[in-house]
Amino acid sequence: MDINLDQRRLHPGFMGHHGQMHLHSGVRVRPDTPAVGPDATRPEQRFDQGGAGRRLPASSFRSRHSALSDTQRKTWERLWPELGTSVVPGPACAEPLDTRSWFARSAPVVLEIGSGSGTSTLAMAQDEPGIDVIAVEIYRRGLAQLLCAIDREQVSNIRLIRGNGVDVLEHLIAPRSLIGVRVFFPDPWPKARHHKRRFLQPGTVDLIADRLLPGGVLHAATDHPGYAEQIAEVGDAESRLVRVYPGTESIPISIVRPTTKYETKAQHAGSAVAELIWKKR
């Protein structure tokens, strides 16, 4: 099993933030923010049978209750209707996103699942103005922080979705439509009985491979050794993906992440970051 470990890039395991919340199998989108409801206080522990026989993880999350600052609230009210949408439970599945209309241009699209406060999202979008980025996160405060940064830096190539990454992939993203999928520091769920909650499992990776264009990239990063081994095993087992290494061949999107404050704080903990990258055949 081959895992890229970058000793310079560190991240504490407890800061995993894939931000997943299970929604019903039928989903719809709406431009406003949904009330999270009772499931916000307790994680789900079941699997969904996805399309094409996929067994998808019971996406779960750790409860967070953080109010928006006055500035964040005002920015949200002003920009969310234009730049954001929410995946909410509903009786019918949503249609795939029309990214050309949403971004008002035709450009390659990258999906980042679990964007947190958007540090990597913003920096990587700024470095690649010719690529459109969709950031998926369940926590409103993280999205609000990213909205404020977008407003401050006047970045035009980022859009936001509040919801579950599995639902977004299944219902809002068309097959063979993405140039890249980024999953940085998903929650490792370190206890063995919780491993079924991990986001990057065979069903999810199969779904990601289906949504990638030929030549598209899956880029994952984690500082949890056990999760890194699982991700490497699952990614290498997906027949449509082939492992690639920086500098060995052309990659259509940037794989250079900024070092976040959490990684900096973890430098003394000695945790190495595994960067795992695949390209669709």
Would you kindly provide a written description of the structure presented here, covering whatever features stand out?
The model is unreliable at 7-27 and 33-49 (pLDDT under 50). This protein has helices at 70-83, 99-103, 119-127, 140-153, 165-172, 202-211, 225-237, 261-265; strands spanning 4-6, 27-30, 48-49, 55-56, 84-89, 109-113, 132-137, 158-162, 178-184, 212-222, 241-243, 273-280. The strands form 2 sheets. Strands 1, 2, 5, 6, 7, 8, 9, 10, 11 and 12 form a 10-stranded mixed sheet that branches. Strands 3-4 form a two-stranded antiparallel ribbon. 28% of the residues lie in helices and 22% in strands. It has one domain: 3-Layer(aba) Sandwich (Rossmann fold), CATH 3.40.50.150. The radius of gyration is 17 Å and the shape is globular.
Give the structure's gist in a few sentences:
This protein has 8 helices and 12 strands. It is α/β, with parallel strands linked by helices and 281 residues long. Mean pLDDT is 83; it is low at 7-27 and 33-49.
Question: In what range is the share of β-strand residues?
Answer: 15-25%
| Number of discrete helical segments | 8
CATH fold call: Rossmann fold
Q: What's the helical proportion of residues? A: 25-40%
Give the CATH superfamily. Answer: Vaccinia Virus protein VP39
What class would the helix/strand composition place it in? alpha/beta
The biggest sheet, with number of strands, parallel, antiparallel or mixed sense and barrel status, is:
10 strands, mixed
Number of domains: 1
